[in-house]
Every structure is written in structure tokens, then in C-alpha cells.
Amino acid sequence: MGSDHPVRIQSMANTPTSNVEASVDQCRRIIHAGADYVRFTVPAMNDAEPLAAIRTAIRKEGLQTPLIADVHFNSDIALKVAGVVEKVRINPGNFAAGGEAFREKLLALIGICRSHGVALRIGVNHGSLSPRIMDRYGDTPEGMAESALEYLRVCREADFDQVVVSMKASNVLVMVAATRLVARMMDTEGMHFPLHLGVTEAGEGEDGRIKSAAGIGTLLLEGLGDTIRVSLTEDPEHEIPVARKLLEVAGRAAEAVPFPESDATGGYVKRPSRSVGIIGGNHPPVVMGADDLSGIALHLVTLSRPEMTEAVIQDLSDDPLAVLVYRCTSGNVQAELRWLRAKLEQQRCIVPVIFQLQVNETTADGFQIVSAASLGGAFIDGFGNGIWLTAAPAIAEEVIRSTAFGILQACRARITRTDYISCPSCGRTNFDLITTTARIREATSHLKGLKIGIMGCIVNGPGEMADADYGYVGAGKGKITLYKGKEVVKRGIPEERAVDELIALIREGGDWKDPA
Ligand code: SF4
Predict the structure, then answer these.
(1) Is 98's pLDDT higher than 80?
(2) How far does residue 461's CA lie from ligand 1's centre (Å)?
């Protein structure tokens, strides 16, 4: 991983390691789907031993895929599993108690990793920063980057370079900003550790694919990322084709004619634009084919790159009713749109811009992933007043529309749906996340703008859904704890009643509306 090696794809088993047979089975399926690495959560000391048995069984089958142990809260587990797997992931937010106490523990872990030839991931999560970091930075991208940097500096002092770093969040904007920042800070400090990319709790189906593609895709197209994990609330092997498609988009972008003018690294700055009816200004981006533009006086001017001359841009500036429909034609749409933005800004042109993109994928998944990876970066950086997707005949109109709204929602440019922050599940999960998520979605999908967290366990769940308005969290076998914001409001609810109780809680909170 890293350097000139291809970007590696990984996924995570959601079976407890104590169930060796099921874990081996799932691991095999993930590997056969095409994963380069498979990760297991190791919540307790006695989960470490079965991991060794899983590894032995996998190796006996001739599968050499490296295994990764994911450790939270107990640094002694990390010390133990470092002798068993190829990589250990720790979370600086909960690896060791506050202050400088982590140094000693980390140096001990580095020692073991070094002697076994094991790699280490410093995996920061937006929702579980240490109290020390929270006091100084809050739950900001700066806090996330600093949380990693203090661990990376220790690795450097110890001359240990088998390290990879990740900045994960369920909020795509935070994940992108934190990863860009940590990459810049590492550069400044002369460190060049590989990056692992992922959007946590991305959810399932279309939303999960679009969120992951917007976040991971944006960074891959910037040349960041050495290994990726798409987290979906689905069977883990479903994550692999999504990851592959993202690498395909990044590969095509890398081969495209470069845009030297678009060297800017990005970052959220809302581009000022003139308002034409409901387009531009402070209006959220429009979706062509869905929003009604019939009563608006406007001039839609469709152009692509070769036509964007200075004289044409001047005309767009001079016409108060002009709206630019920019037809993306490059293999690297993200760089092309950065180039466009720079070009318009040079001439102080504030014409509203609608991005038109033809995506020639023939499956709905492929269409969603390629569209979101291509256009996500522009919206994440505050550019774009509209979106106009067109597709191959095989893609239904409804998929095209829904993908456009999904991209805007993932990039927080326009909120039109309920936002589900659901974890991918792992060995800690206390209930059937896939069916529960589907039930909650069925009951609440009309609650536009509400954020609902659906988390498998009480250990990491509440932190990971930091952003949610309401939370449904597994708290032991068959028992659910419900949250309003960060507060626990109902504990120990039997699973059979928990979805109804969640709805009751949303009603009590004044956030319920009856479906139209
Ligand atoms: S929140 Fe979900 S994925 Fe994260 S540790 Fe808990 S069960 Fe596993």
C-alpha cells in the first residue's frame, strides 16, 4: 500500500470473531469479491484468540489476504492482536487515557508491530475524538487532524513508518476537509504516510453509495488515498464493487488530459452567483428535470470547455438573465469544474452555473457512483447552482432524478430527504441492522431534513452518530436505547417495540409529520 502501489480495497466482516465458522465464511466471500484486506473488530480480549483461528483457516485455504484487527478502548487488546494479524487499527480518540499517557502505550504497540512486521492504522473518527482534543479544537477537521498528528509524530520519532492514517466522518464535508487537512499538515511536517479513505455510517442502497462516492471519489480524484473502504449497511461483500467502480472513475480521471489551471486543492468557499428566478444567489441548487422552471425569465446558455472564451464569459456577465449550462466533457470532471470556476472567477463572472453530465453507465449503481464521484467535489467546495444528469436508456428517469437529489443531499447543498446515519455493523452489533434500517426508513423517509442515527452498539454508536437528531442504538442483546441529540431518553426497550418507540419520541420532540 502507498507509494506507487495501486489503491487497495478493503472491507470489514460483521460477524463476531467468536463465531469462527461464520467469520471464515464471510471473510472468504469478501476476498472472493475482490478485497485486498479484510478487517475484524476485536472488542474484548477473548475475541483476539478466535481471530488467530480465523487467520489459520483462511491461510489453509491458500488465501493470503492480509487481515486487520480493529481495536477501540483497550490498548492491551492492540498489543495482543499485533502478533496475530497483518495490521492493527487503533482510534486515537480512545486508545489510551488523556494527557501524554498514550505515548508509552503507543511506543509499546509500535515495538510489537515492528517485531512482527505488522502495520498500524491511526484511524481518527469525527464522532470519537478524545476529551483533550475536544476541549482544544471541538469536533472540527482541525481536531481530527491534530488527533492523528500527535500519534504520527510518535511513530516518526520511533522511526516506524509502517503506518496508515484515516479521517472518517459520516458528514462527507467533514471527512473531505479533515483528510485534505491532515495530508497538508503531514506535508508541512515532512511526513508522507499513506491515507485510508472512508465515509462512516454512510447507510445502505442509493444513499450509502452516493455518500461514499462523493466523499471518497472527491479525494481520489485529487490524488489522495492509498486504500479505501466503502461502508454500507449491507452484506460486506456488496462494498467491493462500489469501491472498484470508484477506482475505475479515478483511473479514468488520471488518464484524462490534465487541467494545469485547476491545481487548487479545494476547500469550501461558496461561489457568489447572481440570482435568476430560483437559480443562483442563495437558492439551493436546482435539479433539471425535477424543479419547475417554467415561469422563470431566463436564458439557458449551453457551453462546453472549448467555447468558454473570454468574450463569451463577458456576454454571460452582461446578461442578467443568463444561466450557464456547462456540459462536462472531460474524463476528469472534478478538475474540469475547478478549471471552470477559476476561469469564471478570473473575469468576476457571477453567472449561475448548472452542471450537465452524461453518464454512460448501464446499471443504477454504476450511474449513482460515477455521477456522485464526478460532481461531488464541486458541490462540496461550494460551486454549482444546479445539476442536470443524463443517462443511457437503461437507466430509469426516477433513478436519474433521485441520484441528482442524493448528490446534493450528500454534499449538504440541498436537503430534501431524511438523513440516515447507519453503521455498517460489525462483530459488536446487537441487532439485525439491515432489516431494522429498512423498517425505520419505511416509517420515517418522509421527514425531510431529519437526521436519524441507527447504530449497532452502545460502545461506538453514540459517538459515531454525533450529528444525528434522533438515535436508535443497540444496547445489549435485543435491547435498544433511544437518543434525542446526544441525550439518552429511553433505555432497555425490547427490540420488537423499539421502532414504534422511536416514532413516538420523534412525535414528542415535535419533529413528526404525517406522510403526505
Ligand atoms: S457502531 Fe456499528 S460498526 Fe461501529 S462498532 Fe458499533 S456495531 Fe460496530
Answers:
(1) no
(2) 6
Query: CA 307, 311, 317, 321: dihedral to nearest 10 degrees?
Result: -60
Q: How many helices (H) and strands (E) does the chain have?
A: 16, 18
Residue 163 CA to ligand 1 centre (angstroms)? 23
* Per-residue cell: 368: 449513482
Confidence grade of residue 423 (pLDDT, cut at 50, 70, 90): confident
Selection from 456, 433, 377, 369 nearest residue 175 by Cα: 377
Q: What is the mean pLDDT of the chain?
A: 94
* Distance of alpha carbon 86 from alpha carbon 1, whole angstroms: 12
The pLDDT assigned to 450 comes to 96
Please state the rounded mean pLDDT for residues 169-193.
96
Dist CA 353 CA 338 (whole Å) = 13
How many CB atoms sit inside 10 A of residue 74's CB?
Answer: 16
Tell me the per-residue pLDDT of 30-44, one tens digit each, with 9 for 90 and over: 999 999 999 999 988
Q: Provide the sign of the torsion angle of the four alpha carbons 60, 66, 72, 76, taken in this order.
A: positive
Nearest by Cα to 440 from 500, 379, 492: 500
Distance 436 CA to ligand 1 centre (A): 15
pLDDT, tens only, 59-94: 999 999 999 999 988 888 999 999 899 999 999 988
The identity of residue 5, as a single letter, is H
**Cell numbers given for 90:** 487503533
pLDDT at position 436, please? 92
Instruction: Output the pLDDT for position 264.
Output: 55
Name 259's Cβ contacts closer than 8 Å, sequence gap at least 6.
330, 332, 335, 336, 338, 339
3-state SS class at 163? strand
Which distant-in-sequence residues (6+ apart) come within 8 Å of 163 by Cβ?
119, 120, 121, 122, 152, 155, 193, 194
Mean pLDDT of 394-423: 95
C-alpha cell at 118: 505488522
pLDDT greater than 70 at residue 249: yes
Ligand 1 atom with least separation from CA of 427: 8
Q: Where are the beta strands (DSSP E) in 27-144?
A: 37-41, 67-71, 87-90, 119-125
Q: Which residues line ligand 1 (CB under 6 A)?
A: 41, 423-426, 428-429, 455-457, 459-461, 464
What is the CA(430)–ligand 1 centre distance, in A? 9
* 464 Cα nearest atom in ligand 1: 1
Looking at residues 439-464, what average pLDDT do you find?
91
Residue type at position 55: R
Residue 101: pLDDT over 90 = no
Which phi and psi (to 5°) does residue 457 adopt?
-145, 155
Q: Is the pLDDT of residue 97 over 80?
A: no
Compute the residue count for the chain. 516
Using the atom order of ligand 1, give the atom closest to the CA of residue 459.
6
Retrieve residue 205's grid coordinates.
442502497
